[in-house]
UniProtKB/TrEMBL annotation:
GO terms for biological process: zinc ion transport. SUPFAM superfamilies: Helical backbone' metal receptor (SSF53807). InterPro entries: Bact_metal-bind_prot9 (IPR050492), ZnuA-like (IPR006127). Belongs to the bacterial solute-binding protein 9 family. Gene3D superfamilies: Nitrogenase molybdenum iron protein domain (3.40.50.1980). The keyword Glycosyltransferase does not apply. PANTHER family: HIGH-AFFINITY ZINC UPTAKE SYSTEM PROTEIN ZNUA, HIGH-AFFINITY ZINC UPTAKE SYSTEM PROTEIN ZNUA-RELATED. This is High-affinity zinc uptake system protein ZnuA. Keywords: Ion transport, Signal, Transport, Zinc, Zinc transport. Pfam families: ZnuA. The keyword Mitochondrion does not apply.
Amino acid sequence: MIRTLAAALVLTTTQALADAPLVVTDIAPVHSLVAQIMEGVSTPDLIVPPGADAHHLALRPSDARKLSQAQIVIWVGPALTPWLSDPLETLAPAAATLTLMDMPGWAHRDLIGGHDHGADAGDTDHAIDPHAWLDPEIAMIWVRAIRNTLVTTDPENANTYTANAGNALADLMSLHDRISADLADVPSGTWIAPHAAFGYFTDRYGVPAAEAISDSDAETPGPAHLAELRALVEAGTVTCVMSETNGPTDYADLLTDGTDARTGIIDDTGMALDPGPALYGDLLTGIAAQLKACIVP
């Protein structure tokens, strides 16, 4: 009898997982939001592994298989991962595709210097900053869009998706309130970012960077720009220079050498975090803590 019940439970669980749609996401923060909404139904797949460069990545055969089998693809969009556009068209033409940058209800930022993460110069959205997940209020809009896509594609699990999305929205509001309080007294314009990726976060919380070392994480800053940044540090205008997780600290060390300015590490995708539902909140909490510790000793 016990074995029969156990077998039935396994069969029921396996059947539920088999019936759940195969959902593929691009980067860890988006994967985290989707995982929160799908909790109790299934787990989404992740294309860009932690620590990889989302802007320039060769699609692995295992990821190509995931895309070819996907029923739903949720991604930021071509402004972040231009290399993913063609595989989506050829490998997942029938999948329901949710492009988060296309969701209405929020304002796009322009990137400093108009860097486009690989889009053609003639592309109309070449200057759009795609790092919008760093603003929890935008993430709330995305959560609603993710919920709607899941409910439409998989109505049998609509109640679970709706309830989970409600919890995710409440958690995002709580996260936003905590970060707002933590950064309330942090001065603006007193730090240098490793590259121009943190504008949505710093605009939301009133702590914009004075400058960025480069427009993108793949770009090498020139001597003239480095000299300008060094002048800001020497003048005392900038008191903190950030490097990125898993990136070199050479520029931060060069800019702060012999001064009282501090250095720190910051991350925009959760490279050092484990993928999953908790990653999104941990990522933004970490950014706030890293900024505050570096700017306000």
